[in-house]
Amino acid sequence: MLPSFFLSAIYVKAWISTGHLTQLHKDTIQRKMGVLTHLKKQFASYFPSSVDIPRLYIDIKFKNYQKLSQKREEALNRGFLTTDSDSYVPAKVRHKDKTLKVKLRLKGDMLDHLGGGGNGFKRDDKWSFRIKVRQGDALFGMRRFSIQHPITRDYESEVLFFRALEREGIMVPRYFFVNVFVNGKDIGLMAVEEHTSKELLESHGRRDGPIIKFDDSLYWQSYHTPYPLLADQFFNYKTAQLMLIGANLEKQSESFQSYFRTAVGLLRGFVEEKISAAQVFDPVTTGRYLALSKVWGAEHSLTLTNARLYYNPLIAKFEIIGYDANLSLARPIFRREDSIMVHMLQDEKIKSIYSETLKRIDREFKEGVTLKWAQKLQKENLEILQREFFKQEGLDLNKIQERASKMVKLDKELFRSYPDYLKVYYLKNHEGKYILEIVNTLPNPVVVTSIKVVNRLTGKTQTVKPLIPSDLPFTLNKTSVDSSWTDKETDERVKLGTPRGKKVALGKTYNLQEYNIQVYSNIKGDGETRIYDAILYHPTLNKNPVPDLSVEQVLSGFSFITRTRPDTLSIKQGQWNISDWLFVPPGIKLLIPRGTVLRFDSSVGLIARGPVLIDGTIDDPVILRGGGSEKNNNSWQGVFISQTEEASVWSNVFVLDTGGISKNGWNVPAGVTFYQAESVL
């Protein structure tokens, strides 16, 4: 039987509904009703629940726990957490009857991950951990994952946003709630979040490929200066270096390393506006992701510190992985994260998908489709969360389109407080020659005064001159941050500038393992000289390695191909030598008649975004092979058919002399590949 104050609450609620009270009285009573509702949830939390909440036990030896505790104290004093490979300690985790050896460390940049406050919360025992299971083992199907206070991802909001992404075919990490015990102490509910890794890709049916993030180290380093507001100069994806996460590049295959080089080049081309967004990002999943981010207020997931980008090696384009949406930040605080979204939406293909998705999302809300699954999922998760957080009411699904932004001002005059401001890359250009690329990340001009080379063995230093002596000294223009207030509280507009750089050719090539190339510079208007060491990097790509031609370009390039119908290209029967990539545009069919022989040069092949229909017979088969003589054919690049709406039908076809595609960092090992494309063979 419920206590009397709960029965009174029911009576008061009925009294309000009679309509005989003023609005002021109604508001007062409703507030008091809210208190009673919280008490009711708290009362219910003391009794067993029918909800099955997994239990996770973590055991850490005393000396290792002390190491973590000391690291936490340092972070609380500093204001944020810094970690490296030495931050990990050994431990054991247990779920049901399965006990695993792991390594773990504290995780999270800000103090809400350490029980030190943030988001209006403080609890000393709820520490966030990054956990790595030893090789060969897994827990919940994951080898790398985190546990953290549910408030750090805004309780059940992350679950809802991730489900919305999944419904659109977008990758998200596994995310759910468990009851955690640390050294026997019940610390309550924590959120489990999968780390970006090969296992995440496999669970979504993706091929292993690089997952890349923007390096945010300069952003955090700037907090060590006397003027931490300068940090936002480095909260800029256009000046950040690109990093591989979830894998050790040195331990990966040559193919994987080739994928990484191509991925870095494509992203650099996008950042520097030398290649369109649709050539770098998959337009469909990207357009959908941006639309969902706008609707749910999840732009936080695309900030410098949070963006996770998977390079799909089969299509040579990126897909965005859902991560750290934190819908609680969808308020008038920070809009800098809009910058990469604005850049992407300048592409017509992505903008078209984005607009279509917004319309569909709006329609599905009006028709009740979204609320049906979202309310059910929210209820399931709130039943878990309210066992501990009984005041948690959940995300207001009627206000999910409300969001805003934040802008942090930059003091452009405090030269000496800037952290490192130049990026110096040593890379091989498209002519195969090594050059220096020097990039200015500041909103101030930078003067490069000299370049020196240091012999790492002897320590001998010599000044070197560029091939064009007049190149030194030279000034790098500022990287601008243009802003204008349109609303004094909520709507500050920010446009991040493209970083200013210069390419310098030296008189000879240097092995950076034997020599250190140093660039001397100062900020214009400041006399302090700073020295920057060159690092090996990858050049910008100005086009995608996968060809992309129009129907008109295909017809002009191949005299033996005709357009027999608006959606059909036909190859004339006969034997044809092909010296350029044969490309079939999306929505177009390619017909190859019986008895046709196509001889491909070694550097080309067949790429189709539409179905390929081959009508060979036993007596007159179709042959696809390398060029050369009948007895000595050259190897060629093969066939790649992807993302077609109709099936390709092949009958009596011979594909000879191919081992797969290798083109400017795009590698497909099979001679014939059907990717997201049905086939009847």
Please tell me about this protein's structure.
The chain is of the alpha/beta class and 681 residues long. 24% of the residues lie in helices and 28% in strands. The strands form 9 sheets. The protein has a 7-stranded mixed β-barrel with strand order 1-2-3-4-5-7-6. Strand 35 (661-663) and strand 36 form a beta hairpin. The longest helix is centred in the first third of the chain and has 23 residues, at 23-45. The radius of gyration is 30 Å and the shape is globular. The termini are far apart.
A few lines on this structure:
The protein has 681 residues and is of the alpha/beta class. Helices cover 24% and strands 28% of the residues.
**SS content category:** alpha/beta
Helix content: 10-25%
Terminal Cα separation, in Å? 69 Å
Shape: globular
> Main beta sheet, described?
7 strands, mixed, barrel
Unreliable segments (pLDDT under 50, ≥5 consecutive)? 1-18, 43-47, 331-338, 403-414, 482-494
> How big a fraction of the residues is strand?
25-35%
